Amino acid sequence: MEQVIHQFFDFQKLVSALPFGTGHINDTFRVQIEEAGSVKSYLLQRINHNVFRQPEAVMRNIHLVAEHLSRQEYPLEILAPLPALSGDFLYRDEVGNYWRVFPFFEKTTTFDKVETPEQAFEAARGFGVFARALDGMDASQLQPTIPGFHDGMQRLAYFKEVLKKAIPERLAEAKAEVAEVLQNQLIFKKIASLGLPQRAIHHDTKINNLLFDVQTLKAICVIDLDTVMPGIILSDFGDMMRTFTSAADEDETDVSKVEMRMPFFQALSEGFLSEMGSLLAPAEKDNLTEGGRWLTLMQAVRFLADYLEGDIYYKTKYPSHNLVRTRNQLKLFRSMTEHLA
Ligand code: GN1
Ligand code: MG
Protein backbone atom coordinates (compact mmCIF):
# COMPACT_ATOMS: atom_id res chain seq x y z
CA MET A 1 0.00 0.00 0.00
CA GLU A 2 2.92 2.28 0.68
CA GLN A 3 3.75 2.13 -3.01
CA VAL A 4 0.21 3.29 -3.84
CA ILE A 5 0.42 6.20 -1.41
CA HIS A 6 3.67 7.24 -3.06
CA GLN A 7 1.71 7.82 -6.24
CA PHE A 8 -0.24 10.54 -4.45
CA PHE A 9 2.21 12.15 -2.07
CA ASP A 10 5.84 12.97 -1.61
CA PHE A 11 6.13 11.95 2.01
CA GLN A 12 8.78 11.04 4.51
CA LYS A 13 7.10 8.37 6.56
CA LEU A 14 3.95 6.31 6.48
CA VAL A 15 2.70 6.53 10.07
CA SER A 16 -0.33 4.26 9.67
CA ALA A 17 -2.78 2.84 7.13
CA LEU A 18 -5.84 1.27 8.70
CA PRO A 19 -9.19 0.07 7.34
CA PHE A 20 -11.83 2.73 7.86
CA GLY A 21 -15.64 2.86 7.87
CA THR A 22 -18.34 0.27 7.22
CA GLY A 23 -18.97 0.47 3.46
CA HIS A 24 -20.16 -2.65 1.64
CA ILE A 25 -18.49 -1.99 -1.69
CA ASN A 26 -15.17 -0.14 -1.79
CA ASP A 27 -12.18 -0.65 0.52
CA THR A 28 -11.39 2.44 2.55
CA PHE A 29 -8.30 3.24 4.60
CA ARG A 30 -7.32 6.12 6.77
CA VAL A 31 -3.67 6.80 6.08
CA GLN A 32 -1.46 9.01 8.18
CA ILE A 33 1.71 10.31 6.64
CA GLU A 34 4.45 12.58 7.78
CA GLU A 35 4.96 15.47 5.38
CA ALA A 36 7.26 18.35 6.10
CA GLY A 37 7.45 17.48 9.77
CA SER A 38 3.75 17.14 10.53
CA VAL A 39 1.40 14.16 10.46
CA LYS A 40 -1.64 14.42 8.21
CA SER A 41 -4.54 12.07 7.56
CA TYR A 42 -6.09 11.20 4.22
CA LEU A 43 -8.71 8.79 3.03
CA LEU A 44 -7.44 6.24 0.55
CA GLN A 45 -9.92 4.11 -1.36
CA ARG A 46 -9.69 1.14 -3.63
CA ILE A 47 -12.70 1.28 -5.94
CA ASN A 48 -14.59 -1.97 -6.39
CA HIS A 49 -14.47 -2.11 -10.16
CA ASN A 50 -16.60 -5.21 -10.26
CA VAL A 51 -19.40 -2.89 -9.13
CA PHE A 52 -18.19 0.33 -10.72
CA ARG A 53 -17.17 -0.89 -14.17
CA GLN A 54 -16.09 2.55 -15.30
CA PRO A 55 -14.15 4.17 -12.48
CA GLU A 56 -13.29 7.11 -14.75
CA ALA A 57 -16.99 7.85 -15.20
CA VAL A 58 -17.46 7.76 -11.42
CA MET A 59 -14.68 10.29 -10.98
CA ARG A 60 -16.04 12.46 -13.76
CA ASN A 61 -19.47 12.57 -12.10
CA ILE A 62 -17.94 13.46 -8.74
CA HIS A 63 -15.93 16.18 -10.38
CA LEU A 64 -18.99 17.64 -12.14
CA VAL A 65 -20.96 17.60 -8.89
CA ALA A 66 -18.13 19.24 -6.94
CA GLU A 67 -17.85 21.92 -9.61
CA HIS A 68 -21.57 22.54 -9.57
CA LEU A 69 -21.64 22.79 -5.77
CA SER A 70 -18.72 25.19 -5.72
CA ARG A 71 -20.71 27.55 -7.97
CA GLN A 72 -23.65 27.57 -5.51
CA GLU A 73 -24.01 29.15 -2.14
CA TYR A 74 -23.35 25.80 -0.56
CA PRO A 75 -23.01 25.81 3.21
CA LEU A 76 -21.42 22.35 3.58
CA GLU A 77 -17.94 21.06 2.79
CA ILE A 78 -17.53 19.75 -0.75
CA LEU A 79 -16.05 16.30 -1.18
CA ALA A 80 -13.47 16.58 -3.95
CA PRO A 81 -10.76 14.01 -4.68
CA LEU A 82 -7.07 14.89 -4.48
CA PRO A 83 -4.98 14.32 -7.60
CA ALA A 84 -2.10 11.86 -7.74
CA LEU A 85 1.34 13.24 -8.53
CA SER A 86 0.61 12.37 -12.16
CA GLY A 87 -2.27 14.86 -12.09
CA ASP A 88 -4.91 12.14 -12.50
CA PHE A 89 -7.55 11.48 -9.89
CA LEU A 90 -7.17 7.72 -10.24
CA TYR A 91 -4.14 5.53 -9.97
CA ARG A 92 -4.31 2.11 -11.57
CA ASP A 93 -1.89 -0.32 -9.99
CA GLU A 94 -0.15 -3.21 -11.72
CA VAL A 95 -2.88 -5.71 -10.84
CA GLY A 96 -5.59 -3.43 -12.23
CA ASN A 97 -6.99 -1.94 -9.01
CA TYR A 98 -8.10 1.67 -9.06
CA TRP A 99 -7.13 3.93 -6.16
CA ARG A 100 -8.06 7.47 -5.19
CA VAL A 101 -7.54 9.82 -2.28
CA PHE A 102 -9.88 12.22 -0.50
CA PRO A 103 -9.18 14.75 2.20
CA PHE A 104 -9.80 13.46 5.71
CA PHE A 105 -12.14 15.76 7.58
CA GLU A 106 -10.79 16.04 11.12
CA LYS A 107 -13.17 16.55 14.05
CA THR A 108 -16.01 14.89 12.22
CA THR A 109 -17.79 11.66 12.96
CA THR A 110 -20.25 9.29 11.31
CA PHE A 111 -23.04 7.13 12.68
CA ASP A 112 -24.29 3.76 11.49
CA LYS A 113 -27.60 4.21 13.23
CA VAL A 114 -29.73 7.22 14.06
CA GLU A 115 -30.08 7.57 17.81
CA THR A 116 -32.45 10.52 18.23
CA PRO A 117 -35.11 12.37 16.21
CA GLU A 118 -32.91 15.48 16.38
CA GLN A 119 -30.17 13.58 14.62
CA ALA A 120 -32.68 12.41 11.99
CA PHE A 121 -33.73 16.01 11.42
CA GLU A 122 -30.16 17.23 11.06
CA ALA A 123 -29.08 14.42 8.74
CA ALA A 124 -32.13 14.87 6.52
CA ARG A 125 -31.54 18.60 6.47
CA GLY A 126 -27.95 17.90 5.39
CA PHE A 127 -29.04 15.68 2.52
CA GLY A 128 -31.72 18.27 1.78
CA VAL A 129 -29.07 20.99 1.47
CA PHE A 130 -27.22 18.75 -0.98
CA ALA A 131 -30.37 18.00 -3.01
CA ARG A 132 -31.28 21.66 -3.06
CA ALA A 133 -27.89 22.66 -4.40
CA LEU A 134 -28.21 20.05 -7.16
CA ASP A 135 -31.76 21.09 -8.05
CA GLY A 136 -30.61 23.26 -10.93
CA MET A 137 -28.06 20.81 -12.28
CA ASP A 138 -28.68 19.18 -15.65
CA ALA A 139 -28.75 15.52 -14.60
CA SER A 140 -28.14 14.29 -18.14
CA GLN A 141 -24.50 15.41 -17.82
CA LEU A 142 -24.02 12.62 -15.29
CA GLN A 143 -23.36 9.11 -16.43
CA PRO A 144 -25.33 6.25 -14.85
CA THR A 145 -22.28 4.55 -13.32
CA ILE A 146 -24.29 1.44 -12.42
CA PRO A 147 -26.90 0.85 -15.13
CA GLY A 148 -30.42 0.51 -13.73
CA PHE A 149 -29.13 1.17 -10.21
CA HIS A 150 -32.43 2.21 -8.63
CA ASP A 151 -34.70 0.95 -11.38
CA GLY A 152 -37.11 -1.22 -9.40
CA MET A 153 -38.54 -2.91 -12.50
CA GLN A 154 -35.06 -3.85 -13.67
CA ARG A 155 -34.08 -5.09 -10.20
CA LEU A 156 -37.20 -7.22 -10.07
CA ALA A 157 -36.62 -8.64 -13.56
CA TYR A 158 -33.04 -9.49 -12.61
CA PHE A 159 -34.24 -11.11 -9.38
CA LYS A 160 -36.60 -13.33 -11.38
CA GLU A 161 -33.69 -14.36 -13.61
CA VAL A 162 -31.64 -15.19 -10.52
CA LEU A 163 -34.46 -17.40 -9.23
CA LYS A 164 -33.98 -19.64 -12.28
CA LYS A 165 -30.32 -20.26 -11.57
CA ALA A 166 -30.21 -19.84 -7.79
CA ILE A 167 -28.10 -22.05 -5.54
CA PRO A 168 -30.69 -24.77 -4.69
CA GLU A 169 -29.97 -24.95 -0.93
CA ARG A 170 -30.15 -21.20 -0.63
CA LEU A 171 -33.36 -21.03 -2.62
CA ALA A 172 -34.91 -23.57 -0.24
CA GLU A 173 -33.67 -21.61 2.75
CA ALA A 174 -35.15 -18.36 1.42
CA LYS A 175 -38.52 -19.67 0.22
CA ALA A 176 -40.59 -17.42 2.46
CA GLU A 177 -38.57 -14.32 1.59
CA VAL A 178 -38.83 -15.00 -2.15
CA ALA A 179 -42.61 -15.35 -1.78
CA GLU A 180 -42.85 -12.12 0.19
CA VAL A 181 -40.96 -10.18 -2.48
CA LEU A 182 -43.16 -11.58 -5.22
CA GLN A 183 -46.33 -10.79 -3.26
CA ASN A 184 -45.34 -7.15 -3.01
CA GLN A 185 -43.81 -6.66 -6.45
CA LEU A 186 -46.54 -4.32 -7.72
CA ILE A 187 -44.96 -1.40 -5.88
CA PHE A 188 -42.16 -1.34 -8.47
CA LYS A 189 -44.65 -0.90 -11.30
CA LYS A 190 -46.55 1.69 -9.33
CA ILE A 191 -43.50 3.90 -8.75
CA ALA A 192 -42.21 3.46 -12.32
CA SER A 193 -45.57 4.55 -13.73
CA LEU A 194 -45.45 7.86 -11.86
CA GLY A 195 -42.96 9.19 -14.41
CA LEU A 196 -41.23 11.38 -11.83
CA PRO A 197 -38.65 13.92 -13.05
CA GLN A 198 -35.03 12.89 -13.38
CA ARG A 199 -32.69 14.77 -11.10
CA ALA A 200 -29.06 14.53 -10.03
CA ILE A 201 -29.58 12.14 -7.11
CA HIS A 202 -27.15 10.94 -4.42
CA HIS A 203 -28.60 7.38 -4.35
CA ASP A 204 -27.04 6.33 -1.04
CA THR A 205 -28.37 8.65 1.66
CA LYS A 206 -27.56 6.32 4.50
CA ILE A 207 -26.86 8.01 7.78
CA ASN A 208 -23.21 6.95 7.52
CA ASN A 209 -22.76 8.91 4.32
CA LEU A 210 -22.94 12.18 6.18
CA LEU A 211 -20.14 13.64 8.27
CA PHE A 212 -21.17 15.40 11.48
CA ASP A 213 -19.18 17.86 13.53
CA VAL A 214 -18.05 15.90 16.62
CA GLN A 215 -18.90 18.75 18.91
CA THR A 216 -21.95 20.53 17.53
CA LEU A 217 -23.33 17.42 15.77
CA LYS A 218 -24.29 19.59 12.81
CA ALA A 219 -24.03 18.20 9.27
CA ILE A 220 -20.62 18.96 7.77
CA CYS A 221 -20.29 17.05 4.51
CA VAL A 222 -22.22 14.67 2.27
CA ILE A 223 -19.86 11.87 1.27
CA ASP A 224 -19.84 8.76 -0.94
CA LEU A 225 -20.70 10.43 -4.23
CA ASP A 226 -20.05 7.30 -6.30
CA THR A 227 -23.68 6.80 -7.14
CA VAL A 228 -24.61 10.38 -7.90
CA MET A 229 -26.38 9.96 -11.21
CA PRO A 230 -29.76 10.68 -12.79
CA GLY A 231 -32.66 9.32 -10.74
CA ILE A 232 -35.78 10.24 -8.81
CA ILE A 233 -36.09 12.04 -5.48
CA LEU A 234 -37.82 9.00 -3.94
CA SER A 235 -34.46 7.25 -3.92
CA ASP A 236 -32.93 9.72 -1.53
CA PHE A 237 -35.98 10.23 0.64
CA GLY A 238 -36.65 6.49 0.64
CA ASP A 239 -33.12 5.55 1.68
CA MET A 240 -33.34 8.00 4.56
CA MET A 241 -36.58 6.36 5.66
CA ARG A 242 -34.91 2.97 5.40
CA THR A 243 -31.84 3.85 7.38
CA PHE A 244 -32.99 6.62 9.77
CA THR A 245 -36.27 5.23 10.98
CA SER A 246 -35.26 1.64 11.66
CA ALA A 247 -34.60 0.94 15.31
CA ALA A 248 -31.90 -1.60 14.42
CA ASP A 249 -28.93 -1.99 12.12
CA GLU A 250 -29.46 -3.31 8.62
CA ASP A 251 -27.99 -6.69 9.58
CA GLU A 252 -29.54 -7.10 13.04
CA THR A 253 -30.50 -10.77 13.28
CA ASP A 254 -33.24 -10.26 15.86
CA VAL A 255 -35.89 -8.79 13.57
CA SER A 256 -38.19 -8.07 16.50
CA LYS A 257 -35.91 -5.09 17.06
CA VAL A 258 -36.50 -3.82 13.51
CA GLU A 259 -39.32 -1.28 13.65
CA MET A 260 -40.12 1.93 11.85
CA ARG A 261 -39.93 4.72 14.45
CA MET A 262 -42.54 7.36 13.66
CA PRO A 263 -40.99 10.29 15.59
CA PHE A 264 -37.80 9.73 13.58
CA PHE A 265 -39.83 9.67 10.38
CA GLN A 266 -41.52 12.95 11.27
CA ALA A 267 -38.19 14.56 12.11
CA LEU A 268 -36.56 13.39 8.90
CA SER A 269 -39.47 14.63 6.81
CA GLU A 270 -39.29 18.02 8.46
CA GLY A 271 -35.54 18.24 8.03
CA PHE A 272 -35.60 17.30 4.36
CA LEU A 273 -38.61 19.44 3.49
CA SER A 274 -37.13 22.46 5.27
CA GLU A 275 -34.68 22.55 2.36
CA MET A 276 -36.48 20.81 -0.49
CA GLY A 277 -40.16 21.45 0.25
CA SER A 278 -40.55 24.36 -2.13
CA LEU A 279 -38.65 22.68 -4.96
CA LEU A 280 -40.60 19.46 -5.27
CA ALA A 281 -43.29 18.85 -7.87
CA PRO A 282 -46.67 17.75 -6.45
CA ALA A 283 -46.20 14.19 -7.74
CA GLU A 284 -42.82 14.00 -5.99
CA LYS A 285 -44.18 15.34 -2.73
CA ASP A 286 -47.25 13.11 -2.77
CA ASN A 287 -45.17 9.97 -3.18
CA LEU A 288 -42.19 10.62 -0.91
CA THR A 289 -43.46 8.34 1.81
CA GLU A 290 -44.17 5.51 -0.59
CA GLY A 291 -40.52 5.95 -1.59
CA GLY A 292 -39.58 4.44 1.77
CA ARG A 293 -41.44 1.20 1.14
CA TRP A 294 -40.27 1.09 -2.48
CA LEU A 295 -36.60 1.62 -1.62
CA THR A 296 -36.70 -0.81 1.31
CA LEU A 297 -38.25 -3.56 -0.77
CA MET A 298 -35.71 -2.87 -3.54
CA GLN A 299 -32.91 -3.21 -1.00
CA ALA A 300 -34.40 -6.53 0.16
CA VAL A 301 -34.52 -7.68 -3.48
CA ARG A 302 -30.88 -6.74 -3.96
CA PHE A 303 -29.70 -8.53 -0.81
CA LEU A 304 -31.81 -11.58 -1.61
CA ALA A 305 -30.62 -11.78 -5.23
CA ASP A 306 -27.06 -11.61 -3.97
CA TYR A 307 -27.71 -14.36 -1.43
CA LEU A 308 -29.24 -16.62 -4.07
CA GLU A 309 -26.38 -15.95 -6.47
CA GLY A 310 -23.69 -16.73 -3.90
CA ASP A 311 -22.62 -13.34 -2.50
CA ILE A 312 -21.00 -11.85 -5.55
CA TYR A 313 -21.86 -8.21 -4.91
CA TYR A 314 -21.99 -7.19 -1.25
CA LYS A 315 -19.22 -7.79 1.22
CA THR A 316 -20.39 -10.45 3.68
CA LYS A 317 -19.00 -11.57 7.03
CA TYR A 318 -20.68 -14.98 7.21
CA PRO A 319 -22.56 -17.23 4.75
CA SER A 320 -26.10 -16.17 5.66
CA HIS A 321 -25.28 -12.47 5.97
CA ASN A 322 -27.24 -11.45 2.88
CA LEU A 323 -30.22 -13.55 4.00
CA VAL A 324 -30.12 -11.90 7.43
CA ARG A 325 -30.09 -8.52 5.73
CA THR A 326 -33.00 -9.57 3.52
CA ARG A 327 -35.09 -10.67 6.50
CA ASN A 328 -34.25 -7.48 8.30
CA GLN A 329 -35.30 -5.30 5.36
CA LEU A 330 -38.50 -7.27 4.80
CA LYS A 331 -39.41 -6.77 8.45
CA LEU A 332 -38.79 -3.06 8.04
CA PHE A 333 -40.94 -3.05 4.90
CA ARG A 334 -43.79 -4.68 6.84
CA SER A 335 -43.37 -2.25 9.69
CA MET A 336 -43.50 0.69 7.29
CA THR A 337 -46.61 -0.74 5.67
CA GLU A 338 -48.31 -1.02 9.08
CA HIS A 339 -47.35 2.46 10.17
CA LEU A 340 -48.17 4.19 6.93
CA ALA A 341 -51.41 2.42 6.00
C1 GN1 B 1 -23.96 -0.08 -0.51
O1 GN1 B 1 -21.04 0.68 0.22
P1 GN1 B 1 -22.18 1.35 0.89
O2 GN1 B 1 -22.43 0.72 2.21
O3 GN1 B 1 -22.01 2.85 0.95
C2 GN1 B 1 -24.75 0.11 -1.81
C3 GN1 B 1 -26.05 0.84 -1.57
C4 GN1 B 1 -26.86 0.08 -0.59
C5 GN1 B 1 -26.06 -0.15 0.69
C6 GN1 B 1 -26.80 -1.03 1.64
C7 GN1 B 1 -22.88 0.98 -4.92
O4 GN1 B 1 -23.51 1.13 -0.02
O5 GN1 B 1 -26.76 0.95 -2.78
O6 GN1 B 1 -28.02 0.78 -0.29
O7 GN1 B 1 -24.79 -0.74 0.43
N1 GN1 B 1 -23.93 0.78 -2.79
C8 GN1 B 1 -23.79 0.26 -4.02
O8 GN1 B 1 -26.45 -0.71 2.93
O9 GN1 B 1 -24.36 -0.76 -4.37
MG1 MG C 1 -21.02 4.57 2.01
Kindly describe this structure.
It is a single chain. The protein is an alpha+beta fold and 341 residues long. The chain folds into 2 domains: 2-104, Phosphorylase Kinase, domain 1 (2-Layer Sandwich), CATH 3.30.200.20; 117-339, Aminoglycoside 3'-phosphotransferase, Chain: A, domain 2 (Alpha-Beta Complex), CATH 3.90.1200.10. Helix content is 45%, strand content 15%. The chain is built from 11 helices and 10 strands. The strands form 3 sheets. Strands 1-2-3-5-4 form a 5-stranded antiparallel β-sheet, with helices on one face. A hairpin with a 5-residue loop joins strand 8 and strand 9. The longest helix is centred in the C-terminal third of the chain and has 28 residues, at 282-309. It starts with a helix and ends with a helix. The chain binds 2-acetamido-2-deoxy-1-O-phosphono-alpha-D-glucopyranose and magnesium ion.
List its salient traits:
globular; binds magnesium ion; single chain; three-stranded antiparallel beta sheet; Aminoglycoside 3'-phosphotransferase, Chain: A, domain 2; five-stranded antiparallel beta sheet; binds 2-acetamido-2-deoxy-1-O-phosphono-alpha-D-glucopyranose; Phosphorylase Kinase, domain 1
Global morphology: globular
Spatial arrangement of strands, main beta sheet: 1-2-3-5-4
The name of the CATH superfamily of the largest domain reads Aminoglycoside phosphotransferase (APH), C-terminal lobe
Helix content: 40-55%
* Largest sheet data: 5 strands, antiparallel
Determine the strand fraction and express it as a percent band.
5-15%
What's the SSE pattern?
A: HEEEHEEEHHHHHEEEEHHHH
Regions with pLDDT < 50 over 5+ consecutive residues? Answer: none
Bound molecules: 2-acetamido-2-deoxy-1-O-phosphono-alpha-D-glucopyranose, magnesium ion
Q: Tell me what the CATH architecture of the largest domain is.
A: Alpha-Beta Complex
Number of domains: 2
SS class: alpha+beta
Distance between the termini: 52 Å
